[in-house]
Amino acid sequence: MKQTRENNRFLNLLVFAVLVLAGIAFLAPFAWMVSTSLKPLGETMTLPPRWIPGTIQWRNYPDAIAAMGDFWRYTGNTVFLCAMTVAGTVASSALAAYGFSRIEWRGRDTVFLVLLATMMIPFPVIMVPIYSLFKSLGWIGGFKPLWVPSFLAGAFNVFLLRQFFLTLPKDMSEAARIDGCSEIQIFFRIILPLSKPALLVVALFQFMATWNDFLGPLIFLTEQKHFTLALGLQSFQSQNGGTAWHQLMAASTLVVLPVMAVFFFTQRAFVEGIASTGGKN
Amino acid sequence: MTNGDKHNLRVGLLFISPWILGFLALCVYPLLSSLFYSMCDYSALSPAVFVGSQNYRDMFADAIFWKSVYNTIFFAAFAIPLGLVMSLSLAILLNFDLPGKGIFRTVFFLPSLVPMVCLAVLWQWMLNGDLGLVNNTLKPAFGAVNALIGTHLSPPNWLQEAAYAKWGIIFTGLWGVGHAVVIYLAGLQGVPRHLYESAEIDGANFWHKTWHITLPVLSPVIYFNTIMGLIGSFQVFAVPYVMTGGGDGPERSLLFMATYLYQNAFDYWNMGYACAIGVALFLLILALTCAATKLSEHHIHYEGK
User: How far is A217 from chain B (nearest CA, A)?
Assistant: First the structure.
């Protein structure tokens, strides 16, 4: 018995050591990014590299903003697209999820299987016809291809919200129905107020997805004034790749920072949301 | 159908109507028209002309296409198992209930939030042959080996050498395993404690418990994550595209199926051919998903079965 306890203590110590080492490895790229973003160009090329810059050059940040073209415009475009897609996704996915969970109708579960199957369709496979479709609508080169689809309930978000709606007790809806409430009243007055945490998760996921999206803006946007931050950063990189690392790291830090900030304020909801996507059913 | 049933059907369909519209316009229509365009000469600038199986015959004879298939399969074949082992190991270690568990979880998770473009730019710098952090960390290790056995080995210039470029992309991807760690960690909370306790009474050690309890209970989650990883890996595009400045790497070593599809569609405006690549990509993913499902059938333990 005593020996097992000794063994356990040793194992715990070993595990802790591995976790610390792994933690350092996972944080190092962030530290490297910030460190490089504060160095004068010459110092990014000294060997061996130094973690703490000899001279801290804050100027890299305004320089990177100026060099990226219209940084503030890209930021505005990205924020606009985030706002539109979050609104569209939350509204349309909640409606669809209600239809898939709180109303019994014939064929519902079969249709839901179809919805699950659509999650397997890779975007590259359908992007050419979608491009043609938006082109025939005259939408290419504008923002519409990037936000209108979010009002058409993406499968993943419907799935997430449906799972949550299913956990809400049935009798509340029944009682409201007996009192003469219509489904849309039940949806707005009972289900939505109870689902704030799940709606927040969907909103957060959509915000991240839009902020991070690259392929969409790459194919649908044609003019620089419409660029998102992701596209603006890529365009800056393709012009300065392999040279201005200090500015590239400053620009990257600026694009990552808002995502990190949102995460830190919503950490709990976020982590629980991801944990719930494990497909245990 | 009673009147009540009809009413429910109507209301139900009304609620899901946004999804139905999206399903028809952004799934069914694009899939069918992708299939149709794959049999056409089509540039999006002029109307499509039906050419039968021409694109597919061109594709089978196209060495560059096969290169992209090879690169994609190579990437998936290493990225998926390595990601699985790494995320599972970290989750199991985190489950030890040691001090600072929450902090470690956050640290592992953070990189998976980094936008693709930032990820690519940052790791292009990390993997820089002379100045990058990766090689400057590896150099002392290589130096020690060289001194010991008298060799002249040095770390590769990752993204500039055809033989190593894909490994650069694989390592970049591994930095983002935190997402899966969080999912596995949640799955581990669902393992009944009494299973471990009775195993301990029977004298089971850590490995026994992991192999005979933890992994079987987690198997549905592992299966789900692996399928999602498979679908994701076969679409790899943004990171190599950005790292190569919109190209496909030395000797096309970073030309993936999605890259080649993109090039044909939006660089050469050869959209019919791009759709044929898309159909091939879709069938490949479908076949592998079916194969993975079939192979894992007897190894997945669902509760209550």
Answer: 12
